[in-house]
Design goal:
Elements (H helix, E strand, L loop, with lengths): L8 E4 L8 H17 L3 E4 L3 E6 L2 E7 L11 H20 L3 E4 L8 H6 L5 E2 L14 H24 L2 E4 L12 E5 L9 E5 L1
Parallel strand pairs: 1-2, 1-5, 5-6
Antiparallel strand pairs: 2-3, 3-4, 7-9, 8-9
């Protein structure tokens, strides 16, 4: 079915539900992008196929019942994003533009390393742990996750000219050679982005 549809950019969204946070973030981002670029997007998620054009989302085909659930399973949270990478590679090899919309935590360096070249990335999420270290979990969050942030950013600096963040909490990690700005109406609304100067 996908091969019969006309689109400018093939996108993977691990969640595209209007009922969950990551899905809402992906929908807001792609709608803003569709207004800016005036292009047709095909969105594949684990539950459905969607077309986005002219600031409108249209469901083309339902693939499963995941869309209506409030919480995702382990498979949907951790395996599904890896499956999305395979779909993007398949389309990249066919010469199509590709986009990975969500489930982009900054600590997940493996995801950034495995994506096809020139993949358009949706908003990257993350946090900075500032509490006291009281156990192994807080130690990992304070030191290991920060090291993974830095590794991911090194990969992103090599592969991306623009990096969109869902929050400005990650600003301390961004290199000074990237200019930090809050998106304005000429860019993607309500996101922070870093652009190479």
């Amino acid at each position: 079915m996908e091969s019969n549809l006309k689109f400018d950019l093939y996108c993977w969204a691990s969640d595209f539900s209007s009922k969950r946070g990551e899905g809402i973030l992906a929908r807001d981002y792609i709608l803003n992008l569709s207004m800016l670029k005036n292009k047709r997007f095909l969105i594949r998620s684990p539950d459905s196929l969607y077309r986005v054009y002219n600031n409108k989302i249209k469901k083309i085909k339902r693939l499963s019942v995941t869309e209506t659930k409030l919480n995702l399973t382990f498979f949907e949270n951790y395996i599904s994003p890896l499956i999305g990478i395979l779909y993007l590679w398949k389309n990249f090899i066919k010469g199509r533009g590709v986009c990975y919309l969500n489930f982009l935590p900054l600590w997940n360096f493996l995801l950034f390393a495995l994506l096809p070249p020139k993949t358009h990335l949706g908003p990257i999420t993350g946090f900075i742990f500032k509490n006291k270290i009281t156990n192994l979990n807080s130690f990992l969050r304070k030191y290991v996750v920060n090291a993974l942030f830095k590794l991911s950013l090194k990969i992103l600096y090599l592969r991306q000219n623009k990096i969109y963040f869902s929050t400005d909490l990650l600003k301390p990690f961004v290199k000074k050679t990237y200019r930090n700005k809050t998106s304005n109406q000429n860019r993607i609304k309500n996101l922070i982005f870093a652009e190479r100067i």
